[in-house]
Amino acid sequence: MPMYRLSAAHRGADGAVMSVVQLPPPSLAFPASGVPPRVRGLARYTADLVTPDTVLVGLARSPYAHARVSRLDTCRALKTPGVLGVLTPADFDGITLGHQIADEPVLTNVARYVGDGIAAVAATDQSALVRGIEALDIDYEILPHACSVDDALTLGEPLHRACPDNVAQRFSIERGNWEAAQKRVSFWVTGTFQTQAVPHAYLEPRATLVRVTNERLELVTASHFPAVLVETYREIVADWGASLEVITPDIGGSFGAKWEHPTHLICLAFAHRLRRNVAMVLSRRDDMIAGRTRVAMKIWMRIGATDDGELVAKETVLWADNGAYSGHGPTVSLAAATRMDNLYRFSALNAQAQLVYTNNMPSECFRGFGSPQSAFAQEQLIDELAERLSMDPIELRRRNAVQPQDTTLHGWQVGSCGFAECLDAVRQRVQAHRDDHPLPASSRYRFGYGVAAGTHGISNRGYDHRFDRALLSLRLEPDGMLCAGSAEVEIGCGTVDLVCTLIADYLELDRERIRIVLGDTATVPHGLGSFASRTAFFAGRAALDASRQFAKKCSGFAAEAELPAEAGISAVIDVAVAAGRTGELCVTGCYEPEHVALPDQSGYGNTSPAYTFGAHGCCVRVDMATGLARVIQYWAAHDTGRVLSPKRARGQVVGGVHQGLGFALAETALVDDQGRLQNPGYLDDRVATFADTVPVECIFASTFEEHGPNGAKSIAEPPIIPVAACVANAIYDAIGTRQRRLPMTPERVWRSLHTEG
To answer: What does pLDDT average to over the chain?
Structure first.
């Protein structure tokens, strides 16, 4: 069955099949200077690959938060000069997208947020594209809408037919003996906390390019997992009589946003029908209006302890704003409700969560995967407990911290763990700063110190039941380059550097002899890609396995060629190239964590090959006249196993801390009561700039992870997790009022002074 319709008058315009500009696979020979291409201005992003003869695609988007399309007439649009075709919801009938819940149509007859795609237009140039979209005749029947979780739960009308109560998913988990634990509790601390929706604020707006070669469609787009996109779209494309290749060029940031998206199928459909290369490049405004955000949450939590400071029981009730479509909301809400439990040795846990549909833009996974939201609640309550017990807040955490080789109540088999070392390091820094910087007496400014902690796993096997492994190929090319191919992608975290370094060090080769090929499904082994802090761990292990196999093959080749015993791999490569026998030196390395298993139906299980831990501290200054809180010093201690690249590890920590400070103090998606985004730009959203940077001291625990590549764990996501809670605790220390809602803007801090203080 055809997935779309185009008017016969607009099938290929002049009937010509445009020539295809060949895009080489994303291949990077590591530069001799060691400076990555993107730093030298040599990176090529998807939009950079769009040629002047490419057909442009755009969307007519709903101006209403919830509305049914009562009439959609494409006649005027199809008659507009330069317009080549129009796609409507009928062209994608029966196709829905969704990571766990298939609930997002490619184009829709029922708009569920402002910006939802109603129809797509293809045109020869931007001017014709704009005129074509404006020429669409669309009438709407406005429906009741809900732009908050509370409104959605009481709306009385389903936003999706399958969910009459607007709850997309709910779950309840109990660990330990809850009844017995409650009896041991001497007292509880309780609080309700709210976190906001935040745009991902990546530098590269979303872009999609589809190139046509015979019956093959090449989808070029920034994506975390090109191989999974092939799996997602393969059957649809096969029904058209075509095959699919996905190529991921350089990615200008993501932080969890760039996964499956309706624009991919829209561009694929136009490219197949028109037999032309097509592209959709979103403006910053459109990208933010129709993009994805961090999941906003309302969290009620209580923690019970004994009089001597033993953490006994924790109860969490969580409501997550799913937005219009589910995305990764189910896994994010599960992680948010449970992951932070694993920091401490609780006797019993009780967690309940509801993932609620609203008429806000869809939510998505975001760096930290739900943990920054729950840490904001938990780590403030831990501080409240310490105050009730007249105990140092680090000492309370230290006394209850998870230990090496522990098995937590959720089934985590901890293995290496430097959590206690991180806590001690932060305590030392905070105390030294207090001693060296006596707080000045001032009626205008107040100073305070705060601490918080966090934990994170590696990959998503506990929340994503997809088979999880990494493959990496090593192939000697006729030009003497050793080509390494992997399904991982370069998001800016140093994947190329990591893989190149591990291979070069193991094989004792110059890095200039290694070519890295990433994210081209036609040329690299199948794999899940780069997400969930898995790249260094999984790709690193696969790279080492491939290097061992390659060294073994080289040893056999050297013996056959009667090379001297002291001949290195570089000499073997030279001989193989000269003899024209490079095809004999090809291997594929693999890593699959054997000690990790899928969780049971309740989510219990060892869901990660290793776990990271961290503790943060900071000093803040609060302006009592305005409520402005400014961080003046920050300390971040992390257990990441053996640090493979101190410079890149520090970069990840400093970047994560500053992204967390934006989440804590300023950034938010401001939506009015009609569901319209009020700040669709980075200046309006108040994204942190270099002017907002603060001194960050990075400390790394001296641990070694037996399952990791050369003893390493991961570092991408953990640094953002404790930040908001750390700052909130420091503000409380300064002014004596608790901040239970994000962002902690000057107005909110000022109001807390005048309502609580």
So the answer is: 90
